[in-house]
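Why does this matter for the project? Reviewers at the last site visit asked to see concrete outputs rather than summary tables. In response, this paragraph embeds two records directly. Each consists of the residue sequence and, immediately after it, the corresponding structure tokens. Nothing has been edited or filtered.
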Amino acid sequence: MLRRLAAWLFRLAGWTVSGPVPHNLPKFVLFVAPHATSNDFYVGVGARAYINIWIYYLAKKELFRPAPVSWFLKKMGGYPVDRSRHLNFVDSVVALFNEHEEFRICVTPEGTRKDVSELKTGFYYMALGAQVPIVFCGFDYGRKAVLFGEPFYPTGNWDADKKVMAAFFNQVQGTRKSWIRNYLNT
């Protein structure tokens, strides 16, 4: 019932989905960018309902307070991330992939809605360690479209793989001029 409501609201707001939706992949890291507004949460939940694939997501632990909010966010597939401690979070997520036959997780590598000078690379090493593909996903606010790219298996060569990411994200228009294109194209 909630899934149908979220999918209906997604369509009602004028959003569409474009590109190869990864229905046949039981495991992947979803790399969503650019992450520039809190509206991304609603677009993401709507898109997830629309494509009918359950995808967990990572979010800062501060969003999971107070308790009723924590319950809701976890029910919606959220995993809290403690950004203040140096935990081996990548290995924890790789273990989740290894423990489940199906596991998909959404990551916003910017790590914040603010402009940053570089991406957090945890998503890359999660996929590399779990030997699962990265699925690129752009929230194109100019076209009101959620764009999916072909699954990409990281090679371990960040500089080379960054160029593949840039090729996809160069076509995405965020809510403001996106720094991500400039970063990935360097």
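We now turn to the second protein, recorded in exactly the same manner.
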Amino acid sequence: MSAGEIQVFATRVWGFEPTTWPVIVFGLEGNRDKLLRESRAGDRIVFVATKTDDARSEDRGRLLGMAEISRTAVDTAKVVAPEHIKPTDRGPDGRIAWPKAILMLRAWRFPERPLLLEVLGRQLSYLATPAAVLLTADEARKVLSLEAEEAELPMSEVLMRERRFVQGLTSVRGPTRGPVPVSWTKEVMHEASGPAFTYAFRFGKRNVWKIGWSADLPVRLREVNTHVPLEETGEGWCQFLSHRHAAPVRAHEMEQRLLELLAQYRTAGERVRCQQSELQTAWVAALRG
């Protein structure tokens, strides 16, 4: 794996819910610190549901999602809100079973939740249960080519600070990017085909925009509004601009051009804060590109 390539690690989990557990958790500090030593800014970790009864039956042995690994070690209890810690998340002594963690910088769900064996053609080693194991470059490319939908992480001061820090570390090889939709062949053909859309969502009537791409705009809009307390704020994300492409790879390319044109206005993730006229100018330029 060359220095410029994204490394992908894998770990076994009981479940994956980054909106409430925005951390990569470990039972032992040594296993947590090992991943920090072996990973680089921009690297990813993929979460595979264990085949034991601890995971939901429909998830077992499947790839649930992926996260970008930050450079910050934290205690799980200081990041996960108490109301999101269930009794089953604690050991016999009442303490969290996975007390050591690394912040997630970004997270993605795999809507198809493919079987691990279908993607990698092999099982993970035992070490993937207490720790994380590095995938080969070919396996990493297969994981990064899977259809993925970004999940909104709960925003905090430490997350914003960490994103700014990592953005500086990755500036040499460019900003971090979401998975690129490409086609590859396995036992079943996984095709990144069919129409897809590049979109710009607006938050209420504010000059805050979310840039992205999706094969299903109504579904994507519902997802990004899931964790917005509409009943309190009276505001949510709404569709402002969209463009239909013949294939997902084209939608992703336009998304990346648009984010690059608006780089100076980016706040967190794919969100930008700028005037409507500035967004529209960048949109036309990205469309022409």
